[in-house]
Amino acid sequence: MTIALYDLVGADEARPFSPHCWKIAFALAHKELEFKSMPVRFTEIGKIESGAFKTVPAIRDGERLCVDSFQIALYLEETYPDLPPLFAGEGSKALSRFIEKWAQATLTGYIGPSLVLDVHDALGPADQEYFRGSREKRFGRTLEETARGREERLEGFRASLLPLRLMLSEQQFIGGQRPLFADYIVAGIFQWARVISPFPLLAAEDPVAAWFERCLDLHGGIGRRVPAAC
User: What Gene3D superfamilies does the record point to (predicted)?
Assistant: First the structure.
């Protein structure tokens, strides 16, 4: 049975952009599970599955509903144990939690404010109104003020990737010689940036950039099904 993945989109429903939804798209492909992307916009989330969800990603697997990217990954691992693993044992789950928190602080902490206008511009009118109101409340300033100075902050962001860069200088993936869910946590964030904005986050020679290219090629190139923003 095909799994339904509720996938956040903007005005163009062929360009899903949520980092959390991309984590699960990578994870489903990793598990070799058939799935269908169900495009949903910000202002539509509360209407899906009769109001069962307030956030995405969310999946329907037969009669089962599951929400939250990490919980979905755990569900897939427990429900389909004979398919390729997303975690290398219980310790890997704990380490993936650390990667998730690090990524939120280090990656999203810079990328979110820096690309907030790019996200806004990719939305339809109703979603733009919702997004501007909710994000300006969150940041305490206008979207324009929030994004300002991203070029000046870029080198500091790139420097903050040093631990990841050193790791990927010695191994192919965060998971070692093959990807695990920890890779998809980080790749989902860079995919969000790739899909939503042409702003160059990574230098071409960066080992992190080479790793991300490998992630885009995984599972038949699922990450490349959406062209980069230009």
Answer: 1.20.1050.10, Glutaredoxin
